[in-house]
Automatic annotation (TrEMBL):
This is Membrane magnesium transporter. Keywords: Membrane, Transmembrane, Transmembrane helix. Belongs to the membrane magnesium transporter (TC 1.A.67) family. It is a multi-pass membrane protein. GO terms for cellular component: endomembrane system. It comes from Paramecium primaurelia. Pfam families: MMgT.
Length: 107
């Protein structure tokens, strides 16, 4: 519920800021533009409500420190034959195999 109130405060402050800007243009005082304190407080309170109740209290945080495997960096990226796992050779290998025959280095 408080997330909705924060969102409505942000919408209302945006509308108020647009009306204030139009009022300054109508009065020919557009060069003296500054954000009024009440609109600024409304923006800050709306943002704080959305941040606090929308992010912090939802508690849907994923643990970024858990990994599905316990491999080190060297174990995960070790390639003893130094062949690329994918690339143009993998795509064209079936075509060349049909034309020339089996050309695999390891066999």
């Amino acid at each position: 519920m408080l997330k909705v109130i924060g969102f409505l405060l942000l919408i209302h402050s945006a509308i108020s800021l647009i009306r204030y800007r139009k009022h300054l243009i109508y009065k020919d005082m557009a060069d003296q533009y500054h954000i009024p304190l009440d609109i600024l407080m409304e923006i800050i309170v709306g943002f704080a409500l959305n941040m606090f109740f929308g992010v912090i209290l939802d508690k849907k945080f994923a643990n970024i420190h858990q990994f599905p495997h316990k491999k080190t960096y060297d174990q995960a990226f070790q390639r003893p034959n130094f062949r690329q796992p994918s690339g143009r050779g993998g795509v064209l290998q079936s075509v060349v195999r049909d034309k020339i025959g089996n050309f695999d280095i390891n066999k």
